[in-house]
Structures are given as C-alpha cells and as structure tokens.
Amino acid sequence: MARRDDDSWDITESVGATALAVAMARADETTSEHPLFTDPYAQAFLDAATARGWRRPRGPMAERIRAISGYAASRTKWFDEFFIAAGANGIRQSVILGAGLDSRAWRLPWIQESAVYEIDQPQVLQFKAEVLQSQHAQPGTHYVAVPVDLRQDWPKSLQAMGFDATQPTAWSVEGLLPYLPADAQDVLFERITGLSALGSRVGVEAFAAEFFTERYLARRRDQMRQLREQAGAAGEDMPDPEGLWFIEERAMVTEWLSERGWQVSMIEADDLMARYHRAVSPDAEGGSMPTEFVEAVLVEHYES
Ligand code: SAM
Q: Which of 88, 134, 216, 252 has a CA-to-CA distance to 285 between 20 and 30 Å?
C-alpha cells in the first residue's frame, strides 16, 4: 500500500500491522526456552487481531520474522534496560513514540510516582486499550495514551495530557524511524530536544551508515524479491514492508544529537546481540542488521 502524507491506519493494515509483526516476535520470545524477557500480553494482541480478520503471516514471511528473532529480542531487552536505568537515575516521566503494542507500561517495574505517555495513531491505541482491558491488565505507572499522528502537532497534544517539559524525560524511538521521511526525522528530534529538560534521556533504534550503501540496498531488494517469489509459489500474499518505509538518506542520529547538547553513546546491533548471546540471522552478511542503538543524555541547552 503506497504511503500518503496524511495516511492513517488501524492495527490490521498498512503501518499498523507492523506493530503486530513485532508483537509476534515478542510472543515467540516469551514462550521460548530461555526468554530474554517475557511479554504476557503479546499473544492476546495477536489473538484479538486475528478475531478482527488479521491473517498471521505464514510461510516465507513468518520465516523472515523468525530469522530476525534474535535481533527483535535484543532490541526489546535494550529498551527495557534503557527505561529501568532512567528510573534508577530518578527520571519519572517517559514518552514512548510510535508505541504500537509495546506493553512496558504494564510489565516493567516503574519507580513510584512515574508516568508513561504513549503516542501512536488513534485506532492503534484504541485497539491496544481494548485488549489490555479484556486481560484486566493494570499499568505499573500512571499511564496516559496520546492518540495523535506524529506528523501533526504532537507536542501540543502531549502537553495537553499533562506532560511536564520542566521535568527530565526518558524518550524512546523504537521501530519508528523507517516510517518517517528524512525531514520528519529531523523534526521529531527537534521537538524531543525542545521538550527536554536537562538530564533527559533518549533511546533510539537508528539506521547505521551501512544501510544506505548501494551494496546493502541491492542485497536487501534481492532478498525481498526472493521472499515474494517464494510466497507467490506457496500461494500466499506477501505484503511489501519496504513499501511502508522511507528509504532515503538522512541525518545520522549520533551526530545530530551530539551537535545539539546531547551526550551520546551507541552500540551496533551485532555487538548488542553478542552481548545477549543471540545469534546473527543466517541471511545477514557481516552483521545482524545495519542499525545502531543510540542512548543520549541532554547535558546542555543548544542555541540555534
Ligand atoms: N515501537 C513499537 C514496538 O517496537 O513494538 C511499535 C513498532 S511498529 C514497527 C511502528 C509503530 O509506529 C506502529 O505502531 C505505527 O502505528 C507507529 N507509527 C508510525 N508512523 C507513525 C505516525 N506518523 N504517527 C503515529 N504513529 C506512527
């Protein structure tokens, strides 16, 4: 499905369904022999989506999700630790951007008097609320849903819901940047910086420079073509996830943040997976995924 500047989606369609793919990975991890984390709600999201007509990917697409399961589990664990460390440093306010079916507000041990704001499309957050309610899930924090498109004036909506820009904040940007064009990525980080008190933190899953090399992009196109052919031969529909991505060169997140008052550290995806003893996907060449996990603390206010 082609993207439009003003497109919106429900959980079972377009970009919304990508949140289900991540929930699939979390459900599989939860029931694996040695899970890195457990997400007791992931399966309930999948069951509710199936009841609404979503068809769980099978065949080549399911294999692809399984192939990157080590990456997906490591990513979840890294963001879990990011929020726990922020809380241990006294940060009580968190914002999860493009939250999808992230259930951290319900499953992490939040410190007292903390608040978690989640931003995503209205229909995605509505679906999530209904499923969690059906599970009698109780958040371990003051939870606030902020249903707004990230291309609109979300800082206004966030503040209207009680967000306090004078308090340090922990922000997460996980599984989100590919769905934003390059200039929207800059706007996102400008807004985060503008709303951040000193001591705020941001955790980001960002593209590494290798992602934009012709060698990597050609290999990726080739992989997707093969997957589509295999799916076609098996009589299955294979949605093209790349049709939802904005594959265009963009600012390197580490540099962008360092130049604007953030103190930055970074770990590459394959090093992160090694830290958690997770094998690199067999179809990856020279590493897991060309992404990096960036953590930054705001140490000075940047004057433009
Ligand atoms: N961060 C979650 C996770 O890792 O489980 C969800 C990742 S999912 C791949 C991408 C999410 O970003 C979806 O829930 C989608 O609705 C949300 N998203 C993408 N673009 C958005 C936009 N312009 N406004 C609001 N949400 C958006």
A: 252
